[in-house]
Design goal:
- The protein has strands at residues 12-19, 26-29, 32-36, 41-46, 51-57, 71-78, 81-87, 99-105, 111-119, 141-145, 150-157, 162-169, 178-181, 188-193, 198-204, 207-212, 223-228, 233-239, 249-255, 258-263, 267-273.
- The strands form 5 sheets. The protein has a 5-stranded mixed beta sheet with strand order 6-7-8-9-13, with no helix packed on it. It has a 4-stranded antiparallel beta sheet with strand order 1-21-20-19, with no helix packed on it.
- Strand 4 and strand 5 (51-57) form a beta hairpin.
- It is globular, with a radius of gyration of 17 Å.
- By secondary structure, it is an all-beta fold.
- It has no helices and 21 strands.
- Helix content is 0%, strand content 50%.
Length: 274
């Protein structure tokens, strides 16, 4: 599946493939799925037979506890794997806004914290948060476009019912253990229609695929939204409950030119835009 959204697709076709360890977002590389839960636990699954290889707590838990709301591999290699990224999101009582943790994958398929990326303008008035600062979840998701080398941080803004996206160059590991992205580093900023309780996200060839919502019985139905970062607008808004996905959708990934979706229970699907 090399085109994904392109060619004026209007909907998505889904095929159930398996059940894996559930919870939050995850990322695939070299035959393995690394999936986080909401408290820093990482499960590693062998994609050849969907067997569980190990579970471990992400390194650095004494200082940072990743919620794993958005998880992805970058392109900078560190050993046999690229660097792995997970945001902190809402794993704490006190807000940890705009923080992305960077891990090296060790030879025994575990995580070692090697860098922290911080958005340095989360307190700048009416930029990250809404002007009244009453946003329900101002923590922010992250995504990375390997083709352009650009990273995106985006957040829910409740006052004007928009999602705001900030574009900047992906930091390198050599930039240091803590990298702060200041507002002057932002190369593009744009708003789209609201993403209601954003879940997992991935960027692929200029499109961010962003899951949202909880379950079919509440107002926040599971949806998949596609954001075209080149033209800075939302390209698709798909109600996943119409395709039988009624539980909280958490994981979205593009691996070997195939789109994968998985819910909080681990039910996993291949998707194709039609």
């Amino acid at each position: 599946m090399s085109n994904l959204y392109f060619n004026n697709a209007k909907d998505i076709e889904l095929k159930y493939i398996t059940k894996v360890h559930g919870e939050q977002d995850g990322a695939m590389y070299s035959g393995y799925l690394f999936r986080f839960d909401g408290s820093g636990l990482v499960s590693v699954t062998d994609l050849s037979d969907y067997s569980l290889v190990n579970t471990h707590f992400a390194d650095g838990m004494e200082k940072y506890k990743p919620h794993g709301n958005s998880v992805f591999f970058g392109s900078e290699m560190c050993g046999k794997f690229p660097l792995l990224y997970s945001n902190v999101y809402n794993s704490y009582n006190n807000a940890n806004e705009g923080i992305c943790l960077v891990y090296k994958i060790t030879d025994d398929l575990k995580t070692k914290l090697v860098q922290v990326i911080k958005i340095g303008f989360v307190d700048k008035e009416d930029v990250w948060r809404s002007k009244d600062k009453n946003d329900v979840r101002p923590y922010g998701n992250f995504a990375y476009d390997k083709e352009s080398g650009l990273m995106y941080a985006f957040t829910m803004r409740d006052s004007d019912r928009t999602a705001r996206f900030f574009e900047f160059e992906m930091p390198k590991l050599s930039d240091g253990e803590v990298v702060t992205i200041n507002y002057k580093d932002v190369t593009n900023q744009f708003d789209t229609p609201y993403i209601d309780f954003m879940q997992g996200a991935i960027c692929h060839k200029g499109y961010i695929y962003s899951l949202e919502g909880f379950n079919a019985v509440n107002a926040q139905k599971p949806k998949l939204k596609v954001i075209d970062v080149k033209v800075k607008k939302m390209a698709m808004d798909i109600d996943l409950t119409k395709h039988g996905l009624i539980f909280e959708m958490e994981l979205v990934e593009v691996y070997n030119d195939t789109l994968y979706l998985s819910d909080c229970w681990g039910n996993t699907y291949k998707g194709e835009f039609i």
